[in-house]
Specification:
The chain is α/β, with parallel strands linked by helices and 272 residues long. The protein folds into 2 domains: 41 residues; 224 residues, Alpha-Beta Barrel (TIM Barrel). It is 45% helix and 16% strand. Strands 1, 4, 5, 6, 7, 8, 9 and 10 form an 8-stranded parallel sheet that branches. A two-stranded parallel sheet has the order 2-3. Helix 6 links the parallel strand 6 and strand 7. Helix 3 packs parallel to helix 5. The chain starts with 7 loop residues before the first helix and ends in a 6-residue tail after the last helix.
Length: 272
């Protein structure tokens, strides 16, 4: 069959095979070592990263109907949602996770997370996690209120920290950094009467020094925008996620991201 008549899935698989064939032929021991390393690192855990779920038709805004279709796909294909705490327990203590675990996360804390995403998550009996900017809560238009956050926290949605003001942490002094981390954590804990143990880095920027201060501030883990799935080889303060955006064909893009990331990781193209 001519190459141009192949479907997009077959083209991607063919490209993968052509890329790995020389490696397999020249380095069979390296391939075996890679497979053994993957086995030792355990199952790959999918962490999805959303921002907005609304009808704005911009990159960061997944349409509600598209978000519903994505959640339906996960449900129909045997995925089980988990919380950040369950992820942490699995990576650090070996606690068993359900088959095909997925952590669904949202950054910033937009009001549309409550208006659109929350009912859809409830529809499929799914958990979720929202990383909120505490100074925007109840003060900035189009952001969550504490009342909304409190309701969601009581129904399977974990509210965690995205700092106080969403400033890039690499641009702050150590004192400013600690204030962003400690004060956001304290505010959420006081408002929602819960322990806050996880952070998503604003704009995704961080380094090892920042990660150490995050740990000292009392967080168990932190999430990046680095593309990939999580396993036991992941750094708890630099956890990978798979971002989901609105595109010309959002559902196709969604499938490509969740289906082919594990393949690329096994080949060493994403996580070394």
């Amino acid at each position: 069959m001519p190459y141009k008549r192949l479907g997009w899935k077959k083209k991607i698989l063919l490209a993968c095979l052509l890329c790995i064939l020389p490696f397999m032929l020249s380095s069979p021991h390296s391939m075996t070592a890679k497979m053994l390393q993957d086995s030792a690192n355990g199952a790959k855990i999918l962490i999805l990263n959303y921002h907005k779920v609304d009808n704005m038709n911009i990159s960061l805004s997944v349409l509600p109907k598209d978000f519903d279709a994505q959640m339906a796909y996960l449900k129909e294909n045997g995925y089980h949602t988990i919380s950040p705490g369950e992820l942490y327990a699995s990576l650090t203590e070996g606690t068993e996770l359900p088959d095909k675990p997925v952590l669904i996360t949202f950054d910033d804390g937009y009001a549309d997370n409550y208006i659109y995403a929350y009912p859809i998550l409830q529809k499929y009996d799914f958990k979720g996690t929202i990383f909120v900017i505490t100074s925007f809560m109840g003060t900035q238009k189009n952001y969550l209120t504490w009342e909304q956050a409190r309701e969601m926290e009581a129904h399977g949605i974990s509210i965690e920290s995205h700092t106080v003001t969403h400033k890039s942490l690499t641009e702050l002094s150590d004192d400013q950094l600690r204030a962003e981390l400690v004060n956001s954590k304290k505010t959420i804990e006081e408002k929602l009467n819960k322990q806050v143990e996880f952070l998503a880095y604003p704009t995704g920027t961080y380094n090892l020094h920042i990660a150490q201060i995050v740990k000292e501030a009392g967080y168990k883990g932190a999430f990046t925008i680095k593309y990939g799935n999580v396993d036991k080889a992941s750094n708890m303060y630099a956890l990978e996620r798979v971002p989901v955006f609105h595109t010309e064909n959002t559902f196709k893009s969604f499938l490509e991201r969740i289906q082919y990331v594990p393949i690329f990781e096994r080949l060493g193209w994403i996580k070394s």
